[in-house]
Amino acid sequence: MTAAIALGAPVPDIRKQVMRKLFSRIVLYCFFLFIINYLDRVNVGFAALQMNQELGLTPKIFGFGAGIFFLGYMAFEIPSNMILHRVGPRVWIARIMVSWGIVSCAMAFIQGPWSFYILRFLLGVAEAGFAPGVLLYLTYWFPRRERGRAVAGFMTATVLSSVIGAPLSGWLIGSTDGAFGLSGWQWMFLIEGIPAVIFGVVTFFYLVDRPETDRWLTSDERNWLVAELAREEQEGASRATHDFRSIFRDARVWLLTLVYMFNGIAIYGVVLWLPQIVKTIGGLSTVQTGFVSAIPFVFAAIGLIVIARNSDRTGERKFHTAAAGFAGGAFLCLSALVGAPVPGFLLLCCAAFTLWATLGVFWTLPTQFLSGAAAAGGLAAINGFAQIGGFTGPFLVGWIREASGSYTLALVTLGIFPMLGAVLCASLKARRD
């Protein structure tokens, strides 16, 4: 193996060549899949502009139904990721996509609160394992030095899906309303659910499970990558946790779960209610609401990439995550308290820039002390248990909105949580990459 590498390009050149190929063939593709995934998860926020009135859903009912998705997601996250670790990413990610695509289409036929609750819960069950599965998949291919950018590239889909999906969802609702006897929100669910089924089939044939069975790299490139990943695994063997059961005894796993949960309360509270918050500005059509709702996510995408690049450059992870979360929470509180629509919206954009930046760097932290089956279970455990935040955020906004008659107190409440998460993150004992 050493001879093969020596005869080829110098190691720095091989590293650049390999990373260039992996970013284009793995990260870019998974990024595209995550756009589909995240859009099907949060498009209920746009459906609410029309659906809530048609079906008589109150703010509290909508908040509970939007959030119950995450309870189903949480319940099946760990089993899903452990199955992926055994059967391989290609088969399992394809299965996940086809399942959630079918349920997402079925959302078009909800009739009232109970069918809304049931299908949102089933959508969470169907999607369980996708995000942590891809995060685990990236650890199979990317050395630690490039892992922050790879995760950030994948996670950028969570914001770009809203940049693309917000105008798209608004346009679909407005332009298809009444066609063939269906409302615009029903057509939106149907049209946006179909791509998951199609690309689930494509994924089965496209993905490659491990570098050892790769068809994208030359033999020199493949040998270098396999050797580099093996070297890192060996270096980390003495300090890494490998056994699945041991993750539940590791305080760091639970601390990171709380950090991610607190960030999730704010992120999902904003995402699932943003169209209705923007609508309160007044005078906006559904299509215009879609375009305005996309603006904060442009800032979020920029922040996610900028912070992740700086974290990769310095090798520092913990304080990048903590500082971004604290700033995001502070800006979110200020956006609610400023009192004027335009400054408030600009502060919300600042909150998006910093709060979403935590997503790219955060997921490099657990892989500093987890590997093997523990990494598969640990990533799923953190992401899964933290989905309580995805339930809590939307429900809190609906409950406070119904009780107070405005979004001010709800946004302040959301902003407090990532600031608490930042304090917890700063207390984590973590090393530099």
Automatic annotation (TrEMBL):
GO molecular function terms listed in the Swiss-Prot or TrEMBL record: transmembrane transporter activity
SUPFAM superfamilies, per the entry: MFS general substrate transporter (SSF103473)
Annotated transmembrane regions: 22-39, 59-79, 91-110, 116-138, 150-173, 185-208, 253-274, 286-307, 319-338, 344-365, 377-400, 406-428
GO CC term, one of those recorded: plasma membrane
Keywords of this entry: Membrane, Transmembrane, Transmembrane helix, Transport
All copies of domain Major facilitator superfamily (MFS) profile, residue ranges: 26-433
Subcellular location as annotated: Membrane
Protein name: Major facilitator superfamily MFS_1
Record organism: Methylobacterium nodulans (strain LMG 21967 / CNCM I-2342 / ORS 2060)
